[in-house]
Amino acid sequence: MHAPPAKLSSLPQALRQSLLPSRKPPTPCASVDSVATTQTRKQALTDLRRREILAAAIKVFGKKGFADTSVDDVAAAAKIAKGTLYLYFRSKEDIYSTALRQAIHELHALIAERLAAAHGLRQKLSLIVAARLEFWTDQKNLYRLIITVGREQKHRRQTHETLRAGHDSFVAIFEEAVQAGEIQPQPFDALAWAILDMIRGCNERRLDNLNPNTPQQDTTYITGIALQRLGLTEP
Fold first, then answer.
1. Does the model's pTM come out above 0.90?
2. Burial profile 131-152: b = 16 or more Cβ within 10 angstroms, e = fewer
3. What gap in Å lies between CA 158 and CA 131, rounded to an integer?
């Protein structure tokens, strides 16, 4: 008779290890970096599609007017299906609000870029006024929406927040000028609103072809009035 096979537990440890099936660590489906890269690409594509829809929507709003434009019109202008559009925006009101937020972000980035190389109140004030005049001159369709749709009750809060941010940017450079000893401390609230009102008036008249001045001419005039009010009449 043959002797019964030895139990595995009774064998030496080295021999037991050689007899056990090898276990390789599981191969991950994708590394963390590849997952992050994929997500980044998807987000980039999403952002690109949203910008394309916004650009198409602003054009058709400008041609037909906001009230007379349907979601179908926007989808057709963007060359996508209506259902696809709803993957990115809930409604045409959502499109307007998003377009305004994006434009304001771009405007603030433009102003920050110009101010980075500016010195002194005169130059800073002139650069901000010019940026606001030039930017909205290039964004006529959206600006027309702001002065129409933006004044409706459901959009009024966003419009006010946008104006308040502009007001605060002027107050900030005035207060910086006080700290630098360029001007005396004084109330800046009314002057900041007045500057914004002058800029808005120039933009609206230019929109209706009633303003013969260039943005640079308007900049010189508005800046001169503001500097005079601040007590800086001499260069």
1. no
2. bbbbbbbebebbbbbbeebbee
3. 21
Q: Is the domain of 62 the same as that of 170? A: no
Q: What is the pLDDT of residue 158?
A: 94
Q: Which two tokens stand for residue 25?
A: 């660590």
Same domain, 70 and 173: no
Neighbouring C-beta atoms of residue 53, cutoff 10 Å: 24
Distance CA 72, CA 119 (A): 49
Q: How does pLDDT run across 146-173, given as a tens digit for each residue? A: 999 999 999 999 999 999 999 999 999 9
| 205, amino acid identity | R
Domain that holds residue 214: 99-235
**Residue that is written with structure tokens 């940017």 in the block:** 169
Q: Any residues with CB less than 8 A from the CB of 36 and at least 6 apart, and which?
A: none
Question: Are residues 75 and 172 part of one domain?
Answer: no
Q: Per the domain annotation, does 33 fall within a domain? A: no
What is the Cα–Cα distance from 112 to 117, expressed in whole angstroms? 9
Residue 161 makes CB contacts below 8 A (sequence gap 6+) with none
Give the closest residue to 140 by CA, choosing from 103, 111, 97, 112: 103
Q: Is the pLDDT of residue 1 over 70?
A: no
Residue 210 C-beta-side C-alpha neighbours within 13 Å: 7
